[in-house]
Amino acid sequence: MDSEASGIEQNEGSSHKLGLLFEIEHMAVDGRRIAYDVAKSMLADKEVKLTKPFFSRYCLHPSPEQYIPMVLESCGKKSVSGDKLAEEIREGILVLLDDGRISIRPALSRILAEWNGPNLFTGVLSALGEASANRLAARLGIQGERVKMLTPVVGDRAFPSADNWLRLSKMIGVPASSCTVLGTSATARRAALSAGMRCIAFPDEFTSFQDFGGADYIVNEVNDRTMAEILPVLKPTW
């Protein structure tokens, strides 16, 4: 732990601004597990069985509208309205994310505890929509004068994109080369590298099979050892 403290003091004394960027619904909470549970339950009501491997491969886009029609078509459920079901799933996800009992994931909690100083800025990305994302951030305590939120319209494009990360770095006033993305998917990792940012990967149960090549560090468990190893990535010595 002495090496961690030394690194923090050295970098906080620098005038170089650093940025920490992440998706709130996946890094701060287990959003994919919530989405899977909601989709699985609602599809079961339509006599459709949603398995974890199928969800992991085809249903990781943040918008249910992008994958529910395909799920129904693959099961021959042409009589079920995909748009209506997707909307119900989206609403179900938001209800669970609005639950007052939800708490911040330990990994991000430990990182944010170390991320304090006048030159350290935080950018939060979300596909939930502004109102829902802000409520979640407030509930988790991810707020402050050096914290900015970006809630872009997702559409049918891959999310997050390099442009999303670049816009967020601009919002917090930190150059891309001085930002680190905490990414939970290969899409987030690719976008971060394309944007010229560092990336620390945090695979979850639905993305662990993906390719995280190029990430500066891949975290499977946050403990004292991994914290000591990722801090130099978060707060490099300039």
Report the C-alpha radius of gyration, rounded. Answer: 18 Å
CATH-level-2 architecture of the largest domain: 3-Layer(aba) Sandwich
Oligomer: single chain
Question: What is the CATH homologous superfamily assignment of the largest domain?
Answer: HAD superfamily/HAD-like
Structural category: alpha/beta
Total domains, how many? 2
Helix percent reads 40-55%
SS element count, helices: 11
CATH topology of the largest domain: Rossmann fold
CA distance, first residue to last residue: 21 Å
CATH class of the largest domain: Alpha Beta
Q: Strand arrangement, largest sheet?
A: 3-2-1-4-5-6
Largest β sheet strand count, sense and barrel closure: 6 strands, parallel
Ranges where pLDDT stays below 50 over 5 or more residues in a row are 1-14
Large-scale geometry: elongated
SSE order, one letter for each helix or strand: HEHHHHHHEHEHEHEEH
- Mean pLDDT, nearest integer? 89
**What is the β-strand count?**
6
Strand content: 5-15%
